[in-house]
Description:
By secondary structure, the protein is α/β, with parallel strands linked by helices. It has helices spanning about 5-20, 25-35, 40-45, 60-70, 85-95, 115-125, 140-145, 145-160, 170-175, 215-230, 285-305, 315-320, 350-355, and strands spanning about 50-55, 75-80, 110, 130, 165, 185-195, 255-260, 265-270, 275-280, 330-335, 340-345. About 35% of the residues lie in helices and about 15% in strands. The strands form two sheets. It has a nine-stranded mixed sheet with strand order 2-3-1-4-5-6-7-8-9, sandwiched between helices. A two-stranded antiparallel sheet has the order 10-11.
Amino acid sequence: MANPLVIGFGKLIQAAARLKGGGTAFPGLVVERIAPDFAVDILRKLPRGVVVISGTNGKTTTTKIVSELLEAQGIRVFTNSTGSNFMRGVIASLLPRITLSGRLDADIAVLELDEAHAVHFVRRIAPKNALLLNVMRDQLDRFGEIDHTADLLAIIARHTTGTVVINREDSRLACLAWLTDDTAPAKRVWYGLAPGLKAQFPQDDDLYADEFESWDPECMDGVINKEREKEPPPPPGSSGGVVAQESGGDSTAPSVILQTLDGSRATFVIDGATYENSLKLKGIYNAYNAAAALALVRSILLDADAVANARLDDAQLVEQLSQIESAFGRGETFEVNGIETELFLVKNPGGFRLALESFDAADHDTMIAINDEYADGRDMSWLYDVNFGTLKQTGV
């Protein structure tokens, strides 16, 4: 049970930090040192459990989308909205939301977690749902080689008790050994891209290859065959095909597919039905994050209803999605001296490439600011893997 003295002390530190204009995660760090189980004791009481969103790119925006879609469904959501994705950030987000008795007015927690810190988190609180976004070459001084990052995400999947939503187009995620482990408790749900969009959303190996290849065929054949073995046979008189997510069978056919993307207008195929709408989210990568969020929200709603054949209002979800704006610093638009300015946060080659492709360099002046503070990694060598060729037109 949360200690009222610890809660009061944490709230006091947070108020003092705000007066000084910074230190958003510092109060969480202090509370974590005093009471290591602080967040665990509070979050394990939530009636709809905990959702963990992790991966190299897209955590903050996807977490925002998921939270707002769930809130539109009348579900009370707690989330670490500042984007601080260590345990200290989760605690810092909890402090203003809880009473001195430790009561949190929420039904569910939707948390973005750094891949390495998520491993420690899920060993203490098993999430009911998880979303694995991607595995890209990242901060080498923190994560090491890319296969290690994939292993971290596999641990998150193994500790999830309900449903794990997976990016089908990321071969390192799609080929995790966890997928063929019959002892893993979680159901698998996929989201993906239409073939015509795969070149716009390269996985890590595509950034270093001469030719575009979307899969590791040998690995994927093994995963697909294993998943098909688990599918129940089609009912008599049917034409066969893929068993839908709502039937309870695992399948590598995505629950949600980003079908087309034309400027801000996106088309999603959700369990075979097509939905189109404009997005306020900036950056082409956020359309794919939106597909991930839709797949996760649908899984959460189905799990919450505990009805295998529940019918979701997918048209309503897509309409609600169209009203959501980008997270802070992730395609955020604001004015500087009367000039409309867009801010893109990038931390690795893949994210930088997609950010550069999200605007026409010929029509924009571009400024790049580099930071090598601890939170974002001190090793800046990843910049050598970014292709800045599109900026030649601007003189940058």
